[in-house]
Amino acid sequence: MWLHSAVLLLLLGQCIEISARTFEIDNNKNCFRKDGKPFRYISGSIHYSRVPRFYWRDRLLKMKMAGLDAVYTYVPWNFHEQKPGVYNFSGDHDIETFLKMANEIGLLVILRAGPYICAEWDMGGLPPWLLTKKSIVLRSSDPDYLQAVDNWMSVFLPKIKPLLYQNGGPIITVQVENEYGSYFTCDYNYLRHLMKLFRQHLGDEVILFTTDGSGLPYVRCGSIEGLYTTVDFGPGTNVTAAFEVQRFSQPRGPLINSEFYTGWLDHWGEPHSVVATERIVKTLTEILDHGASVNMYMFIGGTNFGYWNGANTPYEPQPTSYDYDAPLSEAGDLTDKYFAIREVIKKYKKIPEGPIPPTTPKFAYGEINMEKVKTVLEALDILSSYGPIKSTYPLTFEEIKQFTGFVLYRTTLPRNYNDPTTLATLFNGVRDRAYVTVNGIFQGILERDKEMSINISGTQGAQLDLLVESMGRVNFGRYNNDFKGLLTNLTLDGEILANWTQYPLDIDTAVINGLLLETSSMKTSNSTSPTFYKGSLFIPSGIPDLPQDTFIKFPGWTKGQIWINGFNLGRYWPARGPQVTLYVPMHILTTSSLNNITVLELEHSPCDTGKCTVEFVDKPILSKSKTHFKQEYLFTK
Questions:
Q1: For 30, phi and psi rounded to 5 degrees?
Q2: Are strands 171-175 and 108-112 parallel, antiparallel or unpaired?
Q3: Cα distances (angstroms) measured from residue 290 to each of 30, 243, 344
């Protein structure tokens, strides 16, 4: 009987301890209360979708050892539901494991649940299959959009409810939407719908919040009663004035900067962004002196593997690297900025004792010989296994349900064009780059906002092919309903071309299944036609500590996509820059067999005229030129 009572008291004590976990806003004291005690957080952003699962623990430990209390992470809807009703929460998509890992390490989590995130991520995290209904109004009370959001959140939010702080997990607050005040719809009913939806699935205890730029127009349209208003701003901002904007919408409660920018994003064709550590330290100190909670965006940027990068308008796609000049590099390296920020944090709180996980070693595996396999045209049956789709006029990617990558558009020349003749896109309708060939002979490139016409020649009945590449959907602003492919007709010598055949290309599946390893029996003389190349990296198993992280460089190559052992590393474009090397995490490499390298070069390779190699090096090159670019910010993303 005594033992029974003791067990009962022990269980009762555990229940009391669990139920005592609270995270609340104290409007009287203008602070958070964690388990009843005043609390403010110093946080850093990490995107689990940009860091391989293999490295989640390493990056989180480094963040903890910097003195951070919490991490912010975005949830990209399209990362988990790439096809309607088909959900992926495994491997690198396993957000529950990521959140539990943060909890084990002792980090709280501020979850930015979407449905829209921006984040320089394809379409701001919204799934492009929403655009199969052309008239849909994203981020509004449009019934079709709301239904899709409701369906997604009914799957996702129940997964995270057990991980809320009051339920024993790490999640202290949840963001509803993101920088909505920067969007044109300004639909308060939409925000109310989201608030009701989140409350329905998560309950009334969790703090729901919004984030907007530190300007009055942004918070006016981006916030409503019932959602706690926070702002974002970067170094050099008048901190007092920025928090006065928050106070306009949120008169009481803790001051919060949800995105304090430690660096900035890059675009292809622009210098690599670098922000001086001294500027970060100065403004971070001012924020903490205000007693505010702060999140550093980014603390580690990571990588836009595959096709996940976004774009801004006027159309400027982001590169594969999302290094962001952050305190932890793209590869998780400790930087001077990391240690400088750690010293600032030391002045305001006790930081963990013990060793910081070291920068992971890198290895230069050297040059790898590459061999031409076949052109895209020669591999068409492999790449488009479900066959073509015919139409009178071109169809968009969305209409043929190809949401990323490449589609080949084909028609024939209606008559002879012996002299160079203008092929033009109407109303800038190529989204985003089209590689044009006639009977397999390269003619030129049409590019969104840049090249709207080229000259071609050929005989009647000749095969006109346009390999169209989606370079990433707009992630911010009015035009994130960013359709891809040929959006309008093409004209040749002023006449509209008709009778098109579209080939959706599933290159990733072909690479994973090893279908692009056999060289073509045909001899391709034109190296400028989009072409696949292959190579093999051998890593001896007898050398300790191999494999290690590395970076791959493309001497003499122009632009394309690369896979290693079937893993899509992303886009390379050293000809335009600023990024020259791509990060290769060690977990995709092996010592037990050859590492297969597949390159799709879209323009010019060095293989017909020079050395046909790629090179593995031990240092990244993120700036094409020696002149670094110091961004002066208008901090609205």
A1: 55, 50
A2: parallel
A3: 12, 9, 14
Task: Report the pLDDT value the prediction gives residue 519, as an integer from 0 to 100.
Answer: 77
How many Cα atoms within 13 Å fall on the side-chain side of residue 45?
Answer: 28
d(Cα 145, Cα 386) in Å, to the nearest integer? 29
Q: What percentage of the chain has pLDDT greater than the value 90?
A: 91
Residue 522 pLDDT grade (very low, low, confident, very high; cuts 50, 70, 90): low
Number of neighbouring beta carbons within 10 Å of residue 517 = 14
What is the structure's pLDDT at 54?
98
Tokens for 97, please give them. 């494991």
Distances (CA, A) of 67 to 41, 325, 328, 339: 10, 19, 14, 10
Contact criterion met (CB below 8 Å) for 576 and 317: no
**Dihedral through CA 198, CA 126, CA 312, CA 626, nearest 10?**
90
Q: For residues 134 and 428, what is the distance between their CA atoms, to the nearest angstrom?
A: 18
Cα torsion 178, 182, 183, 186: sign: positive
pLDDT digits (tens, 9 = 90+) for 557-589: 999 999 999 999 999 999 999 999 999 999 999
Note the pLDDT of residue 625: 66
Q: What's the CA gap between 543 and 533, in Å, rounded?
A: 28
Q: Is the distance from CB of 323 to CB of 337 less than 8 angstroms?
A: no
Closest CA to 540 of 582, 599, 595, 596: 595
Structural contact between residues 302 and 98, judged by C-beta atoms closer than 8 angstroms: no
Q: Is the pLDDT of residue 524 over 70?
A: no
CA distances from 448 to 445, 470, 481 (A): 10, 10, 16
- The conformational region for residue 629 under phi > 0 = left, psi -120 to 50 = alpha, else beta, is beta
Count other C-beta atoms under 10 Å from residue 478's C-beta. 12
**pLDDT for position 518:** 83
Query: Which single residue is written with the structure tokens 């002979």?
Result: 441
Predicted confidence band of residue 624 (pLDDT cuts 50, 70, 90): confident
430 contacts 489 by C-beta, under 8 angstroms: no
pTM, 2 dp: 0.94
- Going by C-alpha positions, the residue among 498, 472, 481, 565 that lies closest to residue 144 is 481
CA–CA separation, 39 vs 552, rounded Å?
45
Residue 424 is encoded by which pair of tokens?
């033009």
Is residue 14 over pLDDT 80? Answer: no
Of 423 and 7, the one with more pLDDT: 423
**Contact between 264 and 636 (Cβ < 8 Å):** no
Q: Are 613 and 601 in contact (CB under 8 A)?
A: no
Distance CA 130, CA 138 (A): 8
Tally of CB atoms within 10 A around 310: 27
> Which residues are annotated as catalytic?
179, 259
The Cα 501–Cα 410 span in angstroms is 5
226: left (phi over 0), alpha (psi -120 to 50) or beta: left
Which has the closest alpha carbon to 297: 378, 233, 347, 228? 233
Q: Can you list the positions of beta strands (E) in 95-189? A: 108-112, 171-175
Q: What is the DSSP string of 509-543?
A: HHHHTTTT-SPPSS----TTS-EEEEEEE---TTS
The predicted pLDDT at position 147 comes to 98
Write the pLDDT tens digit of every residue in 264-317.
999 999 999 999 999 999 999 999 999 999 999 999 999 999 999 999 999 999
Q: Give residue 521's pLDDT.
A: 64
Which of 91, 92, 90 minimizes the C-alpha distance to 47? 92
